UniProtKB/TrEMBL annotation:
Belongs to the metallo-dependent hydrolases superfamily. ATZ/TRZ family. Keywords: Hydrolase. CDD domains: ATZ_TRZ_like (cd01298). It comes from the Bacteria. It holds the Pfam family Amidohydro_1. Residues 54-426 form the Amidohydrolase-related domain. SUPFAM superfamilies: Composite domain of metallo-dependent hydrolases (SSF51338), Metallo-dependent hydrolases (SSF51556). This is Amidohydrolase. PANTHER family: AMIDOHYDROLASE-RELATED DOMAIN-CONTAINING PROTEIN (PTHR43794:SF11), AMINOHYDROLASE SSNA-RELATED (PTHR43794). InterPro entries: Amidohydro-rel (IPR006680), Metal-dep_hydrolase_composite (IPR011059), Metal_Hydrolase (IPR032466), MTA/SAH_deaminase (IPR050287).
Amino acid sequence: MSVLFRNCAAIVPSSNAAVIRDADLLTDGPAITAIGHDLVAPDGCRVIDATGWFLYPGLVNTHHHFFQTFVRNRVELDWTRLSLIEWLDTIYPIFARLTEDCFYHSSVTAMAELIKHGCTTAFDHQYCFPRHAGSRIVDRQFEAAELLGMRFHAGRGGNTLPKSEGSTIPDEMLETTDGFISDCARLIDGYHDAERFSMRQVAIAPCQPVNCYTESFTESVRLARDKGVILHTHAGEGESPVIEARFGMRTIDYLEKIGFAGQDTFYAHCWELTPAEIARLAKSGTGVSHCPEPVYLVGAEVTDIPAMDAAGVRISLGADGAASNDNSNLMHCIHSGYMLQSLAASGRSHPVPLPSAFLRYATEGGASCLGRDDIGTLAPGMAADLFAIDTRRMDYIGTRHDPQSLIAKVGVGMATDLTMINGRIVWENGEFPGLDEQRLFAQAETVLNSTLF
């Protein structure tokens, strides 16, 4: 199907390309075919009056934990009321009760919220595998993505180090390295599609160095390089002293030594990195998924994004899970990320990047970290992943002269008017076309209440 967006007030091809005013955008199937003025609608094309609309590249979320959506807004899990050990002892038994249906419906919930706010590609780091939940948890996530039309990258996580040897993971959520690697291979063979405009990809993502044996990481590297898939893990989020006590080196040194670094690798968080470690990431090409909202709640330091950007580190944005961020709104992360860096700017060696840079992190930066060259910008030949904001509202008076800075500097406090993924409109006029949101809500709420609370 073709769709012509007629008379857009502004089309934002990327964070630094010239904004195209009063223009049209045409899609055909999964791709954008033309951007320009007075485009001709082909036969059978749907024409949308986009007067007053700003069109942006779809956002790319590079770090999330969908399953945590079922533990949002719980006072008894508030970081401000619990020590880290108390929090871990409280929340992991809850995670251990999750069922296969919980993983499916929490994924639908998180992806639906992401789509409403302009996200078109989502990477989920699924590391919670209670034994009673079975072996098809990630399979159910792909099912949820297909239902909503989300472009989905599954990060198959896992934890292998028992609590008795220093991890924080209950035994009922542990896997063996062989079991973890075997399921990674199964998922890659069954779901990973490396073709252009792929809607399904798989990454190998051992949860974090403190909760896994070294062999879990080295075997991940071996399999990923053999299969040609991306590597991901948590790093630089306060664990370096533990890694140093175990191995005599900090986390970045440890990961580089075992080969878990490079252009096919990205880490989540990285707020505790030294300048030398930032330089090492830039040299190796290892990317970073910056999750700004958890920093407000649990971060001991504000991630030095200006230094990373100045060094040439590949930066993307992640919403993260509800253990440390109770919404799935990457659009909001663009605004909060910019504001957070502005707050922490005093005394730093590098200035805060321009507001438009934060849009870049959430689009082109995300595409780079996921190894994609077909998403992240609006141009002929690129995937038809985009979202639209009707700016003919009081919210946007005085802001419309600079669409590239709008989201970071002003913020967008409502759902998009339209979200398109791979040429398919998946959110429009406050609805998911072809889906009953109230029914989805009722199904998820029933599973949540019957399982956890």
